[in-house]
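Q: Can I see a sequence and its folded structure?
A: Here is a first one.
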Amino acid sequence: SSGINAEYGGIGTWAQSDVEKQPSDPGYQTAPIATPVEEESSYVPSNYIKRVQALYRYTKASDDELTLPVGALVYVLQEHSDGWSEGFYNGQYGYFPANFTTDIR
């Protein structure tokens, strides 16, 4: 099942089972940080400021957003004070919620 992301004004969705479980809950699993999702594009934007990895699934709600599976490696191009970032993933540019990701080296 999925829910509306109210924290960002109802933009985008996530799998409730991915975000509502706590570490103490039975069946709790963290994102596979050591196992990134394969990217279809070998292009790397030269102006990226860092790389992040998706901790949760994110399904875009508009054409200017990115859909990210758990484990997606995203090149961040710009960070915004409203909690959204602009990035490049899988051959596409778009916005995504920064709190769905973690910095990687």
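Q: Show me another, different protein.
A: A second, unrelated one:
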Amino acid sequence: MKAESFNQVACSPLRSSENNFQILNNPLIRTISGITMIACFMIIIKMGPAAIFMCNLLFITKSFDELLKIGLKTYQCSSIRKAFTLSWFLFVVSTYALVGQSIYDEFTLDLQNHLILRPIIKYHGIMCFSVYTLGLVIFLANLNNSNYLNMYSMIGFVHVCIAILIIPFSMSIKYFSKGIIRFLFPLITVIFNDIAAYVIGSVCGRHKLIGLSPKKTWEGFIGALILSPIFGYSLSSFMCKFDYFLCPIKYESNQNWFVIDQCQKDLIFHPKEHRLTENIKISIEPFQFHAFVLSILASTLGPLGGFIASGFKRACGIKDFGNTIPGHGGVLDRLDSQFLFQVFVYFYVNCIINETIENVNYTSTFNEQRGEKKEFFKLLHYQLVHLIENAKA
């Protein structure tokens, strides 16, 4: 196939039907779907960490399904059944390899007590690599002169999808295991930012923000940038009151399930008084400062991920990734702002928040030890003085 004709195929329009387009632009349906998703989201949070994890995995899988349909049609592989099967094979293997490794890293001590899981954890890497290599062998065995470019383009597309979807998901497990607040707070903040930008832009938007996404306006962007830190500050204050959001997750061998552990709150979640003037004091949790920073960054990195997704849709001539959610499009249309921000949150939590917690806990422990030493020397001094006075008498 010539490069020119291939480019024409790669950018061929994949447009939804007119009825679907009208449904997706119906504000009433969009609002009802949004409220339904929020209600389901609250129920899932109530069900616990395992339900949150499984829901996230389901969304990632559906997002890959939406991207795969676009890739198969764009690279003219829809009629090649083995391309479809191989793509899912690589996705499942990569998901197990990356996500499984993150789970094993975080819960090794708990999971190794399980007799069945112990050898699986030990040989996880070599097993995943062997199965992945088998997939590449199958890929090479199904090449022929008529589909070289299509198949290699498709296999490259699948790996890009895996990198975009699975790597952020596996990284999020690292901080999700330390406490649900580390995962839910950035997620909810980005969702709020999207809603705020959409509502403000729809009501008073006049100036387009970027050509890739005509509905994004400067008014919506600036409005969301102002409201998101206020919302994030309030949300963090609310979440810091509940141990459910703050305590780490552990694997309970008796239940064979992941549950919230019992813990003492880190000092970063305890209110701390700050004196503004002689008569004015405020009490805030140190985590609220990080929440304020994350909320501002959610208003910038979140839309950036959305713009990248919008550019991809324009390149493929589509309006939405799918029509799974009435009024919103596909699952990926709702998650496109999350992936880039999840990667940033991983580094922010590990390099700044966790470092702050360690420093605060170390300082607190050091002060406690110093206080205990002072009490010891006071008691020793008292005993020595008492002995001397008795000797003189």
